[in-house]
Amino acid sequence: MKKQWIQDFRAIPFLLPFFIAYMIFTIFPIFKGLEMSLYDWTLVRKIEFVGLENYTKMFTDRHFWRTLWNTTFFVILTTPTMVLLALGLALLSNLNTKFKTFFRSSFFIPSILSVSVISFLMIFMLQPYNGLVNNIIQMIGIDAEPKWMADQGLAWVTIVVVTLWWTVGFNMILFLAGLQDIPHSLYEASEIDGASRWDMFKYITLPQLIPIGRVILLLQVLASYKVFAQILLITGGGPGGATRPLIQYIYEVGFNQNNLGYAATMSYALFFILLILSIIQLKSQRSGEN
Amino acid sequence: MSNRRFSNEATIEVKKSKNTVLQRNRDPKLGLKVTLGFIIALIFILPIIWMLFVSIKPNGFSTTEPFEWFLPPYTFYNYVDIMFGSLIFRWLFNSLFVAVITTILTLIITSLAAFAISQMKFRFKNFIFIFFLLGLMIPGEATIIPLYEVAKSFGLIDTYAGLILPMIASPLGVIILKSFFDNVPKEVVESAIIDGCSYFKLFYKIVLPLAKPALSAIGIFTFIGSWNNFLWPYLSVLSETLYTLPVGLPVFNATYSQAYVQPMTANAIASIPVIIAFLIFEKQIVKGISFTGIKG
């Protein structure tokens, strides 16, 4: 009994630094957020207890629903395109040529750049009249002046394409690792059986990639629900709020409208969406391992 | 000696047979695929190359002819101008400082905790591990408003400590390191303990060096994450002198709506260090992604 106590005591210095940081900055804010959502709470201090008022407000706030839909729309647009593009680029980087490292590096390098850099690169490249993209379009003979950031439909295209370009590298490398894990003997055996390249792709490569594909799909949904910075910087949520995501609205309510209580309430809604998604992810990963 | 010769011959034979397989099974569309790969690769790096070329154009340059962006005259004056005439250099320092300290602290606290959970015996161990695991499901973006209040009550708003400390408790780091430490041979640990080695010595003399691949993967990702972190510095820093590059660049760029050269030079200054680091550490980064992505 006494010995056990000594053992416990020895573990404390190892656990304590992580434990303290984890409690203060990860666990405590969850409870703090619950408290804040029940108050009228400004940037300076808490004003008064309002019960569930913030929650009833949220359910009837059309800006909340609109921005939640915008975020969901972004998830719907980016997830399938991201998975397909990542798979395609991984297949290209896995080709048996001396350029494979060049391909992989080129596809991955945008991922290491800061969101501010890629956003402003795009703003400058996509400007009407003297932006590089429109000038190239005109050079190849198309007489058009697309307003990439001011037109509602094009603004979505811009955001999705920029996000794909910026983040696909990470998913591509996951697929590439999956491709390289496929046992070579499977291909050799099928070759003896006279399978064509397309047969091999359909019956060996794709099925073997399903586990990693599922991980990528769910990670992508989770990441896309947190979209904020590139939209804020490229379109500012515009035109007319058409691309404004939920996190931007939460930020504006909290810091521009000075209403942290209501911002914390909406954060809770986002929290539950992401919590459910990550439980699904952990569950499916567990079942994938078994 | 004879062994080596034997293995050499064996590899030659393997190479030969591989070649014949390849020849028989040559992809007829390989050329087409490689061309497609080249076109996409060029599209992917074109914006970055354009940025680098614009940054060495004379001040005030603009054109509607796409090729002219890439032609001389060149000058490096913009770099000198921006490094000394703006806060970019300060923000570059802030970003580096915050990223380095965040990475070091993350590695220290996660490896200590992972070591205790992996190698030591104490009560409630499983409970504590599961409690740390829960952190994986808590999205930082969704708790950032209360985090702001918490940081405020500790006096961390608008400080370096405020930029660093909330980012260091990485549950994923603990999980990855624990699974790595679990693979340290039991005999090594037991004989060290019998020899009177303290747990702390065991930790940093024996277990930690064995976990180098995991440590470098976590280190690289923590660094990139911190270097590119936008939301938290955007909320928690108010003074321009404390901005990190991701927060400072938009402020700097927003003052130039039509001029190209200064904003692209600023973007290039922010990107060149990470591009160089990427080219040096590419192998580790690629390995690290497949490692953490599959495990986490």
Q: What percent of the residues of chain A sit in helical stretches (DSSP H or I)?
A: over 70%
Order of helices and strands of chain A: HEEHHHHHHHHHHH
Q: Any idea how many domains of chain A?
A: 1
Per CATH, the superfamily of chain A is: MetI-like
Provide the residue-averaged pLDDT of chain A. Answer: 87
**CATH 4th-level superfamily of the largest domain in chain B:** MetI-like
The name of the CATH architecture of the largest domain in chain B is Orthogonal Bundle
What does this structure look like?
The complex is a heterodimer of chains A (290) and B (296). Chain A is mainly alpha-helical and 290 residues long. Chain A has helices spanning 2-37, 53-60, 62-93, 100-108, 115-125, 132-139, 152-181, 184-192, 197-225, 229-234, 246-256, 260-289, and strands at residues 39-41, 46-49. Chain A has a two-stranded antiparallel ribbon with strand order 1-2. The longest helix of chain A is centred in the first third of the chain and has 36 residues, at 2-37. Chain A is globular. The two termini of chain A are 38 Å apart. The longest helix of chain B is centred in the last third of the chain and has 35 residues, at 261-295. The interface between A and B is large, with 94 and 94 residues. Chain B: Residues 92-281 form the ABC transmembrane type-1 domain. Chain B: Its main location: membrane. Chain B: Keywords: Cell membrane, Membrane, Transmembrane, Transmembrane helix, Transport.
